[in-house]
Design a protein that fits this description.
The complex is a heterodimer of chains A (169) and B (252).
Chain A lengths: L1 H5 L7 H8 L3 H25 L3 H9 L4 H38 L5 H10 L3 H29 L19
Chain B lengths: L1 E10 L2 E11 L4 E5 L6 H8 L7 E6 L2 E2 L7 E4 L11 H5 L8 H14 L15 H13 L5 E5 L7 H18 L2 E6 L2 H7 L2 E6 L4 E7 L11 H14 L6 H8 L1
Parallel strand pairs in B: 3-8, 3-9, 6-7, 7-8
Antiparallel strand pairs in B: 1-2, 1-4, 4-5, 9-10
Helix pairs in contact in B: 3-4
The chains are: A mainly alpha (169), B alpha/beta (252).
């Protein structure tokens, strides 16, 4: 079911959302939400499936309830996949902002792109594009920093530079 | 204390263990020795309540084991530490019901016992293999189990670390003398630690020998009195004296 929904190009929802939700903010927000949902969902699911069975077994040894198992083992173990999902979702989110605003808007960066085209002002278009680049980079960096704090425990290549070994102790 | 009677296990119809019968007294250290594929890890998992038996029953203090019990501590082949938790929080992992301060104090005491009192804040990725396994032992001991089950706990370590951890385990055991049942494929490890060695052989695994090692601990690795048992166990494991059909096959 979700796989079938996923294969629908998100832009295809636009006419339906406009019919149901009107041409104002609600339709745009819904379009962005639908577009962003799948990368986050897929990464989260992949993360849950990849949780080390052997760690879950440690929870069983201590007779964890289902809720405790989720909270103490599955959630932290899934966090890396979730952060990856959020980051790719964020990139897509900006794409859908443009798509939604090109459909019909009276303000916003997407509107400036169209406005620049229709009034023959390439400078406006380039300015809007540059702003997208800056905003995209800034939001991604914010997410990356938050993620790095939460994932400092990972023994990964990306973390290697702050590796402090205690093997001599 | 621990009774295993008429225990058999099949995976999808294929027998893994057949007719296992033995009991372990309180405070006894018993090694289950066998080559790979004889179901010795499966046996330990059944005793620990992680796997149901196909036939037979395991009793702990007279009660049948139907699932993991707070009386049992389990040390796996790998440390299995939660990589996102500090060493201290890993040890406190199983102490769910207690207040936070008490959990911390107990975890730190357990770490002290395994000689890691000074790395409580470290993350698992900063530990060496031997240290990580010591943390796993502390985690198993912190709940004060009456039975400690160990599944080839030192097999992934280098020879030197293995020896020192074996000595370490005996020291920790002396504190409150839990019953220990451990699985190993290392004859010397069994001889250094165990009061009794149970040899599991064949497929499905069956008990081929139940030998008492009458020698006081601490034992010296090269002790000539151990040589007799070592030869005997080696013959068992290498398939000599296992049965006429095997001997015939190797003679051809």
């Amino acid at each position: 079911m979700l796989q079938a929904l996923r294969s629908i190009p998100s832009i295809a929802w636009v006419p339906l959302f406009i019919l149901w939700l009107g041409i104002f903010e609600a339709a745009k927000v819904t379009l962005i939400a639908v577009g962003v949902f799948f990368p986050v969902y897929l990464n989260l699911m992949a993360g849950i499936e990849a949780v080390d069975r052997r760690l879950v077994e440690v929870g069983r040894v201590y007779r964890f309830s289902a809720w405790r198992l989720i909270w103490r083992i599955l959630v932290p173990a899934t966090l890396p996949g979730y952060v990856t999902g959020l980051r790719s979702g964020l990139g897509l989110g900006w794409m859908f902002v443009v798509a939604a605003e090109i459909m019909g808007a009276s303000k916003g960066l997407g509107f400036l792109l169209i406005d620049g085209e229709q009034t023959g002002r390439p400078a406006l278009i380039i300015a809007a594009i540059l702003l997208f680049a800056v905003l995209g980079k800034l939001t991604d960096m914010a997410l990356l920093l938050a993620g790095r704090r939460a994932l400092a425990w990972q023994d990964s290549f990306g973390n290697a530079r702050d590796q402090r070994s205690l093997q001599a102790v | 204390m621990l009774e295993i009677s008429a225990l058999s296990k099949q995976f999808d119809g294929a027998p893994v263990l057949a007719g296992i019968d033995f009991s372990v007294d309180a405070g006894e250290i018993v090694a289950v020795l066998g080559t790979s594929g004889t179901g010795k890890s499966t046996l330990l998992r059944i005793v620990g309540g992680l796997e149901p038996a196909s036939f037979g029953v395991v009793r702990l203090d007279g009660q049948p084991v139907v699932g993991p019990s707070p009386k049992l501590g389990f040390v796996f082949q790998e440390p299995r530490l939660m990589p996102w938790l500090s060493v201290r929080d890993n040890v406190a992992f199983g102490l769910a019901a207690l207040p936070r301060a008490e959990r911390r104090a107990l975890a730190e005491a357990a770490l002290q016992r395994v000689g890691l009192g000074d790395v409580t804040e470290a993350l698992p990725r900063q530990l060496s293999g031997g240290m990580a396994q010591r943390v796993a032992i502390a985690r198993a001991l912190v709940t004060r189990p009456s039975v400690l089950l160990l599944d080839e706990p030192f097999s992934a370590l280098d020879a030197f670390t293995r020896t020192s951890l074996q000595e370490h385990l005996l020291e920790v055991w002396r504190d409150n003398r839990p019953t220990m049942l451990f699985v190993t494929h290392d004859i010397d490890e069994a001889l250094m630690l165990a009061d009794r060695v149970i040899v599991l052989l064949g497929r499905p695994g069956q008990i081929r020998r139940d030998e008492r090692i009458e020698l006081a601990r601490p034992r010296r690795r090269g002790d000539p009195r151990l040589a007799r048992w070592r030869d005997q166990l080696f013959d068992d494991l290498s398939g000599m004296g296992t049965g006429p059909e095997l001997r015939l096959a190797s003679a051809r």
